[in-house]
Amino acid sequence: MAPCCHSRRREARPISLRQLTFFGRTLTENRLISSANYVRAELPTRLAHRLRDMQTLPYVVVTNPHMSHVYELYYKAFETLRRVREIRSVEDNDRYCRIISQTLQEHLTVIPRLAMGVIECQSLMRPDETDRFMNTLLRSRISRRVIAEQHLALTETFHSPWHFPDAKPHHDPNADFVGEVFLRCNAKEVVDECSQRAKSLAQAAFGNECALPEVKLEGHLDATFPYILSHLQYIVGELLRNSMQAVIERKFPGKPPPVEVLICEAPQHVIIRISDQGGGVPKDILPDLWSFGKGPRSHVHLENLVQVPKMAATMQELKASNQAASGHVQGAGKDGRLVDGSLNSLTSRPPNLRLGMGLPMSRVYAEYWAGNLELHSLEGYGVDAFLQISKLGNKNEQLSTRASMDAV
């Protein structure tokens, strides 16, 4: 039996935020090795399922140069990762982490190449089939990067200077982060940070003379929940960016109306509503608002995507190397923990570089942890966007469907 077929016979084992933190809260060598072997089993399995998805596409689609590029990357990664033997020691784990890191770096071209391939092939597949394919591939990509980056972060913690083999506990129970999971993610702080970055981007694009809308916050401002910070920053950042840009481009005389953000905390969810008076979504765009490849402006999106050669898991353009060269590092957490600037910053593209992926990608990220994103457009007035987040951390990652499954 071919290795890819054998791996496809295995089902992926979804994991919850609560389970991700379990390995790290009391980090021991055995738990680190257990985490490594979970990742070792999951990555080739999840890649095999996506390879099969690509193999079932029409031949003319798979031979598209962008789609073919992604397929070759996935197959190379599958062949590399499936050959890794069982992790039995810290040394084995360190070697495995180097393989994971290299694979993650190589796959930074996947999202823009996928997007360009989908747009170029939009006449060869039905729009619903195209969006289903993209949705599944992106969820799987998020899932692989989540478990891989979580394990890399745990390994970094294990090797940190303050981590001693006989220390008890091995991880500070009061720390804000366990690997990549932020235990006390505060919606207000995320909105504040994202709004400042959105204002900076808008000012750079429209000039210092441009009147920017104020972002008004109200509601349950102390609401906290466990979440992967870069995911929430991406979603909120895209929504605020869209709202601010719409208000600015409507050119109100005098001071523009504010973008209003309401945070509502319920027993199991946190809901963030972002409301603007930017005139609503244009009629020609509204029917294809959540589509990756269809729409009246897809040719413009294709031209713009060519200018974005690499994107991280949250679709941010990579700026980490530039920041490292200049000595500027973004995203230091409250505990001083450094977060990768390429994941933690808002999309650095200028507002006029529209990619047509912001809202569809945001919904994929929202639904990944059993949340939801809805948008209501009031023509001639503005937009209300509703982001619902599961606050307990006990929902498994949603790999292919929106059906919610509680973690064991």
Q: Give the overall silhouette.
A: globular
Low-confidence stretches: 313-346, 401-408
**N- and C-termini, Cα separation:** 33 Å
Structural class: alpha+beta
Quick check: average pLDDT? 81
Order of helices and strands: HHHHHHHHEEHEEHEEHHHHEE
In DSSP terms (H or I, runs of 4 or more residues), the helix count works out at 14
Number of strands: 8
Helix content: 40-55%
Biggest sheet architecture? 5 strands, mixed
Q: Strand sequence of the main sheet, in spatial order?
A: 3-5-6-8-7
* Rg value: 21 Å
Q: Which percent range describes the beta-strand content?
A: 5-15%
Q: Explain this structure to me?
A:
There is one protein chain. The protein has 14 helices and eight strands. The radius of gyration is 21 Å and the shape is globular. Strands 3-5-6-8-7 form a five-stranded mixed beta sheet. Strands 1-2-4 form a three-stranded antiparallel beta sheet. The chain is α+β, with helices and mostly antiparallel strands and 408 residues long. The protein has helices at 3-8, 17-25, 29-55, 59-62, 65-82, 90-106, 110-120, 127-158, 187-206, 229-249, 298-305, 320-326, 341-344, 358-368, and strands spanning 177-178, 181-186, 215-219, 224-228, 259-265, 269-276, 372-378, 382-390.
